[in-house]
Amino acid sequence: MKPRVYVTRKIPGEIVARLQEDYEVDMWPKEDVQVPREILLEKVKKADALLTVISDRLDDEVFSAGEHLKVVANMAVGYDNIDLESASRHNVAVCNTPDVLTDTTADLAFALLLATARRMIEAAEFIKEGKWKSWSPLLLAGTDVHHKTIGIVGMGKIGTVVAKRAAGFDMEIIYHNRNRHEVAEEMLGARYCSLDELLAEADFVVCLAPLTSETKGLFQREQFQKMKKEAIFINASRGPIVNEDALYEALQAGEIAAAGLDVFNEEPIDADHPLLQLKNVVALPHIGSATKETRLAMMETCCDNLDAIFADRAPKTLVNKDFLGSRN
Ligand code: GLV
Ligand code: GLV
Predict the structure, then answer these.
(1) Claim to verify: residue 91 and residue 120 sit in the same structural domain
(2) Distance between Cα 237 and ligand 2 center (Å)
(3) Cβ(162) to ligand 2 under 6 A?
(4) Which domain holds residue 213?
């Protein structure tokens, strides 16, 4: 009998067709509505594999219900939605989709930086609302990006290619990370510094760190107060790294100049949220990896990982490495 895969979100027919060659496929039929918790808990009971998205919470309750579950392929590089300890304890492999989304996510992070600095969203709304009366010297004047200092918090794969883009804009690159990144230092002239030094020196503070117990709530009022008044804060990793009340207060008080946010504490964020009322906030609905090419590549990576597990090969992008040891 073919292994059973439960797909927690409607995905394109071509990917479903690929899965159907080797698996019994069951899928939540909606593209823009999350699978209800009780349905996930019911479906996981029979599933040998789950193909999931970041809004699915995969905790001990899910892993305990999944008696036959062997693998979770999460369509994201981040896996803070998954209790890895519980997965390993239940002998479930957890796989993510790094690499295929690195350049695409870096493009979006840099685009968000540019859009925020140059007030592009405000300007686009301005012209469509018929407000453009005349060329004027300081109309929608933003702030320069070139030759400024970018401070990257989280110099992983995405951080490194954001730095590469910044180098093309003649920016000075500083970074803070758990470990030194020698390649970025040698190839891009990136300079390692403490978080406090970075906050004090950067014109653009760009958060690309994964959400972990160490990074949760990393940006509080104090961190914003340490930034320059002209600083622009960009977050393209995970919302809970930032205390949003503190960010709002810092923006209101003029302690920093603007923010570009692709991620939020609660997703989807409420349209009435105070942050979304501010002119100097550019907000995007978590679209870092959202190009057609990359999203398909992420789904293919999920399929490759399922194939590896059911063929008893080591998957390419396994997150809980202890899973391999537990198989023998
Ligand atoms: C998206 O946020 C991802 O982790 O891939
Ligand atoms: C992973 O791809 C990262 O950028 O941290």
Answers:
(1) no
(2) 9
(3) no
(4) 102-283
